[in-house]
Amino acid sequence: MSIEEQLKKIEELYTQNIQEKGIVSSAVGWNTDDCQFLRFHKLSSYIQEENYTVNDYGCGFGAHLKYLTDIMKSSVSQYNGYDLSQNMLDSARKYLDGYEGKLVLKQNSDIDTIADYSFVSGTFNVRFDAEKEEWESFIKETLRQLSEHSTKGFSFNMLTSYVDWEEKHLYYGDPCYWFDYCKNHFSKQVVLLHDYHLWEWTMIVKK
Ligand SMILES: C[S@@+](CC[C@H](N)C(=O)[O-])C[C@H]1O[C@@H](n2cnc3c(N)ncnc32)[C@H](O)[C@@H]1O
Questions:
Q1: What is the pLDDT of residue 5?
Q2: Under a CB-based contact definition with an 8 Å cutoff, are residues 98 and 70 in contact?
Q3: Domains of the chain by range and CATH?
Q4: pTM score > 0.85 for this model?
């Protein structure tokens, strides 16, 4: 199956989730609001400024923006949310009603907006039947786009390969491999966070 076919299946999964469950963290695959926000906390932990613009790749219903504005008290002047699922983006428009910055929501898997910071939370986890190498090529191309479209930095998370059980349809990234990849391809300043209680890690690439 091609990557396009996998992305179609992923789009259908999340569309069905949001239709059945509504705007709740379980609709984007998380067990609790707390663990969803813990991921946002890790991904955003290196940001010093109060005002900035954001790309959110696989934005779901836009919860990361709410975290930035309501919990971090940041002023996000533009939020570019990307998602495969139009239903997710429609939910984001509702959920983010009242946001005072510029809201750009794109049903697209390619990034074409420049922002200070870009985030990816959970988007690389579900690979369905894609082969490991094929999925890693897709991730590398996406990281290349993130790097080109982030002026100050980008961060992403993955399920960790340090597990004793793997689900067949999910991708578990080796943090050492991806750390090395980011160091060699994107920046000298790379931070790996693998110190929290989820079966995941977060990579921060500073420009
Ligand atoms: C695990 S959910 C996380 C949503 C959000 N980041 C959060 O943490 O609340 C992943 C989201 O990414 C979207 N997605 C998956 N692959 C994508 C791709 N290649 N391009 C754009 N969106 C994608 C899905 O539709 C889904 O809404």
A1: 94
A2: no
A3: 3-206 (3.40.50.150)
A4: yes
